[in-house]
């Protein structure tokens, strides 16, 4: 009958500028697609060079090497008799575009430039690319000589065109174009295009996956059609983790999907679908479109004549991960990519016995769980990588705890202000997940040098010292821990007669980074931090999940203990310092404030105006004003710390990451005189108009 088509999309773990590895993974995906009978294969955005090249996109070398890889793809026997859709940057008329290059049997059919660029969140595409601003317009592109010699083509179509085969028509979207209110698939559907493709480099954020799925379902619910979504996967060289989720939909239903988190470098998703289902769905919904697309015709069919016995894929239910599962899986996969690609031999973590460092430890344990499962499932690449990391070609990981003993070292750094309770909690957790070394740090030698020079010996506040002395003494303890952590990371394996070094892991959460509640250049200063984009509230839920899923019972005591830095002297052997008292607000309140600052784009005044309503059952307007002012003072005083903060896994959309997500000054007028005066005026007005009695604001 010739109406059923088998299509393939994929998630690839590409690495920025790893042209050799990227080519290998692209060819592997094409090979798998052909083995499954697919006649069309879609890959991720900018898959040839990797999405995260950043300012390397400016280099002519990047463009050159992309065309060299494209030449290798065109020459490969694997790319014959299948339409291949790959992503790479292309310079046209001296303007750089983010493009799809679609080819078949050593002929380039169409180069489709991205029209709607992503320029929000972590995306800065306008820095490197220009958008194609001529809808439904196609012109000639002169190919480089190396491609001309191979294909026999001098020019090829370049622009907003669609591909017309003998049996259907395909149109491209690229990543952010799906999220835009003027998505191209709307007009393409009205012009009779039946298959939409989207090549993405969409990164993970907690609670985001359902938005992506709903957009794709909606795209084909409105006007019918088949939708293919390809995405990058893994860490391609920076703070982001691209979370796969390759999928295929038809007429509002998901019929095939890939994993959101996995250690597979190449994952191909295929589906066989009936084009008549699209035509029947559209028959009573669409009218003729008055602005046709330029159709690039090709003498090729996606379907076969005799397909009566070919079954089609049916709708599948998408089960989304809980936030706790996302924290367990995403950062763990990111850590594994970083470890195997960095050439290091494992991780070292200063483990304090608190929620944050315990969360980092549990993520490493989760990584080991995933590695063991991948090896058990026959993933030869993971096995090869593990053997290289542990420097043992005969090693085969089977037990996560045993693997942790090879890859993970924890170090409890006690001071005279550390309690026995936290020490025991840290030791209990370390015993359940891997191995540990102990060290007792002393700051007396440092203070002796200071005293010798100045003639002064600073004291903690509890012993009569000033606030300045108290803070300085806390900071010096924390900074010595950083020095010791790196000493152990560099020489721990040397002391055991083993090669390599360890990556130091940090464990400051997103809320502490927001307020600057950490010491600059302390043990939060590490090589990478898997929890730096996760809130304290989410981390507590994550540890509860780990108790049940990994049977890490040592976490129960950690969850019950109040968060504390343990940098001030104990009272009768007990901790009196707590994080929330030091910060002047709870972690729950801080999470709300953080979201208003970043997501809702609130300054001090607008934040106050929102919180007097949402917190009206708990705080009076003057109390809300006090909290808002306190936050912005702390935030602005400590913003300079974000310029040196450890690179962290991006997980929250209110992250204060200074690298490229949350661009702010780091020298503020911390008085906020104008803004705070506006708040004071509003408090006075609210009190006069609404009244105030005790804590509850009457409205």
What key phrases describe this protein's structure?
disordered C terminus, 14-stranded mixed sheet, alpha/beta, ligase, ATP binding, 699 residues, four-stranded parallel sheet, 40% helix, single chain, NAD_synthase
Describe the structure.
GO terms for molecular function: ATP binding; glutaminase activity; NAD+ synthase (glutamine-hydrolyzing) activity. It is an enzyme of class 6 (ligase). It catalyses: deamido-NAD(+) + L-glutamine + ATP + H2O = L-glutamate + AMP + diphosphate + NAD(+) + H(+). Residues 5-275 form the CN hydrolase domain. In the C-terminal section; belongs to the NAD synthetase family. The protein is of the alpha/beta class and 699 residues long. It is 40% helix and 17% strand. The strands form 4 sheets. Strands 1, 2, 3, 4, 5, 8, 9, 10, 11, 12, 13, 14, 15 and 16 form a 14-stranded mixed sheet that branches. A 4-stranded parallel sheet has the order 19-18-17-20, sandwiched between helices. The termini are far apart.
Rg, alpha carbons? 28 Å
Approximate strand percentage = 15-25%
- The total of beta strands comes to 22
Uncertain regions spanning at least 5 consecutive residues: 693-699
Number of helices: 22
How far is the first residue's CA from the last residue's CA?
A: 70 Å
What structural class should be given to the helix and strand makeup?
alpha/beta
Main sheet makeup: 14 strands, mixed
Overall morphology: globular
Relative helix content: 25-40%
Mean pLDDT across every amino acid position: 91
């Amino acid at each position: 009958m010739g109406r059923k088509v088998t299509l393939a999309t994929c998630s690839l773990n590409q690495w920025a500028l790893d042209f050799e590895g990227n080519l290998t993974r692209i060819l592997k995906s094409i090979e798998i697609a052909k083995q499954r009978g697919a006649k069309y294969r879609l890959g991720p955005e900018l898959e040839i060079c990797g999405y995260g090249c950043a300012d390397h996109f400016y280099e002519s070398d990047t463009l050159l090497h992309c065309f060299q890889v494209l030449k290798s793809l065109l020459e490969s026997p694997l790319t014959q008799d299948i339409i291949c859709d790959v992503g790479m940057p292309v310079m046209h008329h001296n303007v750089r575009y983010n493009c799809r290059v679609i080819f078949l049997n050593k002929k380039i059919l169409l180069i489709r430039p991205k029209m709607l660029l992503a320029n929000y969140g972590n995306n800065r595409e306008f820095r490197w690319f220009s958008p194609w601003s001529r809808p439904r317009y196609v012109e000639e592109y002169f190919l480089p000589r190396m491609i001309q010699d191979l294909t026999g083509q001098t020019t090829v179509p370049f622009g907003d065109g669609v591909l017309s085969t003998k049996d259907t028509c395909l149109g491209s979207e690229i990543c952010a174009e799906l999220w835009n209110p003027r998505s191209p698939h709307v007009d393409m559907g009205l012009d009779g295009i039946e298959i939409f493709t989207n090549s993405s480099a969409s990164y993970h954020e907690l609670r985001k996956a359902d938005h992506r799925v709903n957009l794709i379902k909606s795209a084909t619910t409105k006007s019918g059609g088949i939708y293919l979504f390809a995405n990058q996967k893994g860490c391609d060289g920076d703070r982001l983790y691209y979370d796969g989720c390759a999928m295929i939909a038809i007429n509002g239903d998901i019929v095939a999907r890939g994993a959101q988190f996995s250690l597979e470098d190449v994952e191909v998703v295929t589906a066989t679908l009936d084009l008549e289902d699209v035509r029947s769905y559209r028959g009573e919904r669409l009218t003729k479109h008055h602005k046709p697309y330029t159709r690039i015709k090709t003498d090729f069919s996606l379907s076969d004549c005799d397909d009566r016995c070919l079954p089609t894929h049916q709708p599948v239910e998408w089960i989304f991960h809980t936030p706790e599962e996302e924290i367990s899986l995403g950062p763990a996969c990111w850590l594994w990519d970083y470890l195997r690609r960095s050439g290091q031999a494992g991780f070292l973590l200063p483990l304090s016995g608190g929620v944050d460092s315990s969360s980092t430890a549990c993520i490493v344990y989760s990584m080991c769980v995933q590695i063991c499962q991948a090896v058990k499932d026959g993933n030869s690449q993971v096995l090869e990588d593990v053997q290289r990391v542990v420097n043992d070609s005969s090693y085969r990981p089977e037990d996560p705890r045993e693997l942790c003993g090879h890859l993970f070292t924890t170090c409890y750094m006690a001071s005279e202000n550390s309690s026995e309770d936290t020490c025991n909690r840290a030791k209990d957790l370390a015993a359940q997940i891997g191995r540990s070394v102990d060290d007792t740090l002393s700051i007396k030698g440092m203070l002796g040098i200071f005293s010798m020079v100045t003639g002064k010996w600073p004291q903690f506040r509890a012993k009569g010292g000033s606030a300045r002395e108290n803070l300085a003494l806390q900071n010096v303890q924390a900074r010595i821990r950083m020095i010791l952590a790196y000493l152990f990371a560099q020489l721990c394996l040397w002391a055991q007669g083993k090669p390599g070094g360890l990556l130091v892991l940090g464990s400051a959460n997103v809320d502490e980074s927001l307020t600057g509640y950490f010491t600059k250049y302390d043990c939060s200063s590490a090589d990478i931090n898997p929890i730096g984009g996760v809130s304290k509230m989410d981390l507590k839920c994550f540890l509860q999940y780990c108790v049940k899923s990994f049977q890490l019972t040592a976490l129960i005591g950690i969850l019950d203990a109040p968060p504390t830095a343990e940098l001030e002297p104990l009272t009768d052997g007990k901790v009196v310092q707590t994080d929330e008292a030091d910060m002047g607000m709870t972690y729950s309140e801080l999470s709300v404030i953080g979201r208003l600052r970043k997501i809702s784009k609130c300054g001090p005044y607008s934040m106050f105006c929102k919180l007097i309503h949402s917190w009206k059952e708990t705080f009076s307007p003057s109390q809300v004003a006090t909290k808002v002012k306190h936050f912005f003072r702390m935030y602005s005083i400590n913003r300079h710390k974000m310029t040196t903060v450890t690179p962290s896994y991006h997980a929250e959309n209110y992250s204060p990451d200074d690298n490229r997500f949350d661009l702010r000054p780091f020298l503020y007028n911390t008085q906020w005189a104008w803004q705070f005066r506006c708040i004071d005026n509003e408090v006075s007005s609210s009190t006069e108009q609404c009244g105030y009695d005790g804590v509850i604001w009457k409205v």
